[in-house]
Amino acid sequence: MAQVANDPTASDAAPSPIRHASHQKSNRWALALGSLGVVYGDIGTSPLYAFRVAVTAALEDGPIRRDIVLGVLSLILWALIVVVAIKYVLILLRADNNGEGGTLSLTALASRALGRRTAVVFLLGVVGASMFLGDAVITPAISVLSAVEGLTLVTPAFEHYVAPMTIAILLGLFAGQSRGTARVASLFAPVMVVWFIAIAVAGVLHIHDDPGVLAAINPAYALAFLYGHGHIGLVTLGLVFLVVTGAEALYADLGHFGRQSIRTAWFGLVLPALLLNYFGQGAKVLADPAAIENPFYRLVPEALLLPMVALATVATVIASQAVITGAYSLVRQAIQLGLLPRLDIRHTSESQAGQIYIPRVTGALLLGVLLLVGLFRTSSALASAYGIAVATTMVVDGLLGFIVIWKFWHWPLWRVGVLIAPLVVVDVVFFSANLLKLFEGAWAPILFGASMVLLILTWRRGTHILARKTRRSEVPLDTLLGSLQKHPPHIVPGTAVFLTSQPEFAPTALLHNLKHNKVLHERNLILTIVTTDTPRVADDERVKITARSPHFSLMALKFGYMESPNVPKGLALARKQGWPFDIMSTSFFLSRRALKPATHSGMPRWQDRLFIGLAKSASDATDFFHIPTGRVVEVGTQVAV
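Structure (tokenized):
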């Protein structure tokens, strides 16, 4: 210690604890600010429509009553506290998979906690992920619609232009996806800060219209409302759930901003702003019942109405962008985990690996969004379709969280039950309430989610059948090596890399090369790409090489499910282990399978054809694994599945 104290460079080598703590604090605030533009866009724009549709449903065309307004406000307050603050912000944010969150991360964590992959956990993960994608279709539609509807308060003549303007904004949003959001992302956070401050001020200015609205803090009003309104109370509860849509984004974006930053933003700005605005809307409606037509915009002075519509539109576009980006990230994870076929993934930023663009996902989302706007045309009508997708994802997160806390955190079962079971019950109640709107619009996300579940299960089942059938015709690698030792072919200089998912069997491309070219390269590498159940893999753990003979080696390249598999970079890392990699003397041999329906495939004929269609839609392995096209040799085979 004395030597350090006397060292004149000690201050440079070891920053003081005070300076380090100050740096950490400033960094946390910067991340908290950044999270406002990504994490809280969806939940932050809910005041545009949530209170209005919930109260309107409870009224049943009757007059505004104090007990209804206070009951709905109490439900909103406690939904935000129980579902968002307690379940997600305080509990699930701690259940991270090496720093990453989201349904698929939680699924991987639950599988690891159980020590194996179980059908129940897998199915829960698939359903949760599929319904998250359903949410990604609805959020842009309802958010932008609700913002543009404010123009009808400026002049009723705008009423016929709401849907066309919404479509135009959405087309512009999706058209810009291919260019990436790196250039404008820096503006997201400041805009959302202005948005939250604006809605908080608007609410504060009107709470004095009826200060008695603050009595809704008492949960007795929520319970009395549900008890006294029966079926209508449950329907209203399903619409109250709209205030927490976007809560799953808190967990999904954990890896981008960190636990503390997300919590700081929630308790420091987002929750207070939301509550002030909702209570301001309640006070305004009690003082002026006609304001229920659009209580959010009725809080704004007439002179500031157009600027608020513009700000709301920008905020909803930011919320939509965050959901679209989340969908890209989820689909990439699903591809890496083998749940979906390879799709063309393009990086839109050289500095930010998370900035990606998936053309086919963009097309599917745009088609779904435009269909929803065309079918429902108003945010009130679309509200019935919104909650079920998020409610399903939340039930899944709760169940998986139960497994993780019990098995991974090693909590006693009774303690987990006391903590998580009530939260799961709340999620199930919200799910049931949203299910009551099945024929009013909830069918839309259920149909979309069910379609995604079908695609994922078909792809998984088809790939297993294909692997089983391919294995029957393959030669064990040990058998081939023994044969080559007895009857060595002509050896040519260079390195041949054969990609395969079954390293214990000789790759088809290797057999065809021996059969048709009758040569063997000086060095042959049987390469397997392994996707781990962790988000990322450290470079020193990425490569594992095993020599099998003087001419053959096995290599496993490990990539996390959040990473893009880059084979050349992985092989370059192998140099540290003595592998002489030179891209200019290396040839990559890939098998291209042409699939056709078999008489007995193990799947119904329609599912067989669906799998073949999915396989044909898969992007080229050369691009997916970042292999230089000039170094690739493809060998075609035909397989009946």
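The longest helix spans residues 305-336. Residues 512 and 635 are 7 Å apart (CA to CA).
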